[in-house]
């Protein structure tokens, strides 16, 4: 069968047209990619699943004389002797899991009063709480947040955190109109936190477990 001249001409023109359009196609490609990206951004995003908080990484204020956090959790029998011995009823055990099931203190509601007998430590039979002289107790360290304090926000003369501290000016003082916490003297009892009138508290104890991480 003889070649069809008409067919050859069509093929020739197709190849020529294809060569002519190549630069145009290359120029359109980046525009097309950009439009695709904009289309993706305009599409509604799926709502992420809510994050369920766990107390796994929470820090808890432990009773006076508590050993290092990990050892405390491993050693404490959860017997409740320290809870019953506390004259201030500051020590709690939450069977539902608060405090990881071990004794803790919520300084917002009931702080340790650093009582004369320090009965919780002498009552503990497991070694989770070690009898410690008052000045050597280190439950944590208070931190003052100046811009939450009424001394700053209301320009008043509140000094309740200073006045209620059982360690006195060895732990906290008012220096040139600034609340000054002294880390070496602060035992972390939480009395300042409990008595602070602001919400959230302008002064709060950072448990010693924060330094153990």
Offer a few descriptive terms.
6 strands; 213 residues; alpha+beta; 7 helices; single chain
List the helices and strands and how they pair.
Layout: H1 5-42, H2 69-75, H3 81-85, E1 91-92, E2 104-105, H4 119-123, E3 140-144, H5 150-153, H6 160-164, E4 172-175, E5 178-181, H7 191-195, E6 203-207
Antiparallel strand pairs: 1-2, 3-6, 4-5
Biggest sheet strand order reads 1-2
Pick out the low-confidence regions.
44-54
Count of helix runs? 7
Structural class: alpha+beta
SSE pattern, N- to C-terminal:
HHHEEHEHHEEHE
User: Overall mean pLDDT score?
Assistant: 84
Largest sheet: 2 strands, antiparallel
* Distance between the first and last residues' Cα: 88 Å
How many strands appear in the DSSP assignment? 6
β-strand percent reads 5-15%
- Which bin fits the share of residues in helices? 25-40%
Our count of domains comes out at: 1
Tell me, what's the shape? Answer: globular
Work out the radius of gyration.
Answer: 34 Å
Give a description of the structure.
- By secondary structure, this protein is an alpha+beta fold.
- It has one domain.
- Helix content is about 30%, strand content about 10%.
- It has a two-stranded antiparallel ribbon.
- The longest helix is centred in the first third of the chain and has 38 residues, at about 5-40.
- The radius of gyration is 34 Å and the shape is globular.
- The termini are far apart.
- Residues about 45-55 have low confidence and may be disordered.
């Amino acid at each position: 069968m003889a070649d069809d001249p008409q067919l050859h001409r069509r093929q020739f023109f197709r190849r020529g047209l294809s060569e002519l359009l190549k630069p145009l196609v290359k120029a359109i490609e980046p525009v097309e990619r950009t439009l695709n990206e904009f289309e993706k951004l305009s599409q509604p995003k799926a709502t992420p699943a809510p994050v369920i908080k766990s107390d796994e990484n929470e820090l808890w204020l432990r009773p006076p004389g508590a050993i290092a956090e990990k050892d405390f959790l491993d050693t404490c029998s959860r017997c409740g002797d320290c809870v019953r011995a506390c004259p201030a009823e500051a020590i709690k055990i939450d069977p539902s899991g608060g405090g990881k099931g071990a004794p803790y203190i919520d300084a917002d509601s009931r702080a340790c009063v650093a009582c004369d007998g320090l009965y919780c430590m002498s009552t503990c039979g497991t070694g989770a709480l070690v009898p410690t002289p008052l000045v050597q107790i280190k439950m944590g360290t208070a931190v003052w947040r100046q811009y939450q304090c009424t001394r700053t926000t209301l320009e008043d003369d509140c000094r309740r955190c200073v006045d209620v501290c059982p360690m006195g000016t060895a732990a906290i003082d008012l220096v040139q109109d600034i609340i000054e916490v002294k880390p070496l003297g602060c035992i972390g009892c939480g009395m300042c936190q409990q008595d602070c009138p602001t919400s959230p508290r302008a002064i709060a104890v950072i448990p010693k477990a924060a330094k153990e991480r």
